[in-house]
From TrEMBL:
Keywords: ATP-binding, Membrane, Nucleotide-binding, Transmembrane, Transmembrane helix. GO terms for biological process: ribosomal small subunit assembly. Residues 57-241 form the Tr-type G domain. SUPFAM superfamilies: P-loop containing nucleoside triphosphate hydrolases. GO terms for cellular component: cytosol. It holds the Pfam family GTP_EFTU. It comes from Flaviflexus salsibiostraticola. This is ATP-binding cassette domain-containing protein. GO terms for molecular function: ATP binding; GTP binding; GTPase activity; ribosomal small subunit binding; rRNA binding. The chain crosses the membrane at residues 385-410, 416-436.
């Protein structure tokens, strides 16, 4: 059971840290007043958690003379609470703690140092199922001292199990029902009623009294609450009461449940300060922007002129890139920002808008990126070699035939073989000249493609620096805030 409680406490601590992170990450983007309120509320939660998340508080509540203190002693097996006929009124709260770590809770509950007692530990106690239990004997709720009833009222929110100890002669007391029980309908699953001193009631009247008590509780909206008959002096009903206490110890403490609920509530109040998701800035999202800016800089015209130069042998003037217009850059930047800021609350969208480069700086940086890639004419070396090779082959073919005709055979003489050799040489020369044109054209296309890719890559690098990276910083902060709030509110 201790391991389960530790797991629950660890979960609450995880949620608390997540909320703390969300408040930290959201600074500057979440409305300051709401953030300050959340921070103050979180301090209160940390204080509550500091009281002990694994403690189970069980309080004995009742009126003067009901035998609460005797009941507390019977349950604990210790004489830590005032009891007896000489002191029928409980003046100050007393507490018995099973195990260690209850001091902060007892400080909060206002239990004086001399009214505390610790019973054993998990290793030495004969009731390990009570480890983490804090048993309170509270001041009488009907005491003439106003401070007593006030203390009882203040302790209610941290009590895991309320044990109402009633005098079988006073169970219908109007002060008890109007002042306390009628306002605890929501706590009825964490309450039991004990009719103490049942030994003073004749056997034939006990069942009737129990039925009357159940009817009165039902009228208070507390139907279904266990009603136990007991006698603290004779130890009657004590084992049954302990079963209910052990069950309470086995459940998650109200302190933990409340801290968890408060953390979720704080996170819920901040949830509309973030969007359900955020855009992811990557090269894939920036590449279309780079292509648009490249077109705005006339890179397409430059590439076309480079490709056209491969179609002609004459001198060909290449186009030059242009300075992109500020209006065009502004429009392209604005469209990209709209896609990145979609659905974000205004403060986060403004954060992105303010963090990225403005239109004029972006235009200058894009122009520098474009100018950093030189525009050079496509290389024609291979095509020139092929042309000269073709001319030489044609001349060799013609020379072969001329030599055969004039009677100076080179290899084959004036035979069919010389005709074939001459034809092969001439055709090979023509093929080399044709291939030279194709090589020139292909070289120009490759050069244009390389240039366009190089320019787009340079522009993409500029976009990463001017747009992507600063926007991603804000988006990452938003994502961390959103995920932290989701963890806290889960």
């Amino acid at each position: 059971m201790g391991e389960v409680m530790n797991d629950v406490s660890a979960e609450v601590e995880t949620r608390r840290k997540a909320l703390e992170s969300a408040i930290e990450q959201g600074a500057g983007y979440i409305e300051p007043f709401r953030l300050a309120r959340a921070a103050d509320d979180l301090k209160a939660v940390k204080h509550r958690m500091g009281l002990g998340m694994d403690l189970t508080v069980v309080a004995l509540v009742g009126g003067t003379g009901s035998g609460k203190s005797t009941m507390a002693n019977a349950i604990s097996g210790l004489d830590f609470a005032d009891s007896g006929e000489l002191r029928p009124t409980t003046e100050r709260a007393a507490a018995c703690a099973w195990g260690e770590g209850a001091e902060p809770m007892l400080d909060f509950l206002g239990v004086d140092e001399d009214r505390r007692i610790r019973k054993g530990s998990l290793l030495t106690d004969e009731e390990p199922e009570f480890e983490g239990l804090v048993l309170l004997d509270l001041p009488d709720h009907d005491s003439i001292r106003v401070s007593h009833s006030v203390q009882v009222t203040q302790l209610m929110p941290v009590v895991d199990l309320l044990i109402w100890v009633l005098d079988p002669q006073k169970y219908a007391d109007q002060a008890l029902h109007a002042g306390y029980l009628q306002g605890l309908a929501r706590r009825k699953d964490s309450m039991i009623v004990v009719l103490n001193q049942i030994d003073t009631v004749p056997f034939d009247q006990r069942e009737r009294i129990v039925d009357d008590v159940k009817d009165v509780l039902k009228a208070d909206g507390l139907d279904g609450i266990p009603v136990i008959t007991a006698s603290a002096l004779d130890h009657q009903g004590i084992d049954e009461i302990k079963i209910h206490i052990a069950s309470a110890v086995g459940r998650t403490s109200i302190n933990t449940v409340t801290a968890k609920a408060e953390i979720a509530a704080i996170a819920g109040r901040l949830w509309d300060s973030v969007a359900e998701s955020e855009a992811e800035v990557s090269d894939d999202s920036l590449r279309p922007v780079a292509q648009q800016l490249a077109r705005a800089a006339g890179i397409g015209a430059v590439g076309s002129s480079m490709r056209a130069s491969g179609e002609s042998w004459r001198e060909f003037a290449l186009a030059k890139p242009e300075q992109p217009a500020t209006s065009t850059v502004t429009a392209i930047r604005g469209t990209w920002l709209d896609s990145v800021e979609r659905d974000l609350p205004p403060t986060w969208a403004k954060g992105i808008h303010d963090s990225v480069a403005g239109p004029e700086k972006l235009r200058r940086d894009v122009a520098e990126a474009v100018d950093s890639v030189p525009v050079s004419k496509p290389s024609s070396r291979n095509s020139t070699i092929l042309i000269w090779l073709g001319v030489l082959l044609i001349l060799a073919g013609i020379g072969t035939r001329v030599a055969a005709v004039v009677g100076a055979p080179i290899l084959f003489g004036d035979t069919a073989a010389s005709w074939i050799a001459a034809g092969v040489l001439i055709l090979s020369g023509i093929w080399a000249i044709v291939m030279a044109r194709s090589v020139r054209r292909s070289s120009a296309v490759r050069a244009a493609d390389r240039y366009e890719r190089a320019v787009q890559e340079k522009i993409l690098q500029t976009l990463r620096t001017d747009l992507g990276e600063p926007a991603q910083v804000v988006l990452t902060q938003h994502r961390r805030t959103r995920e932290a709030l989701a963890t806290a509110a889960a």
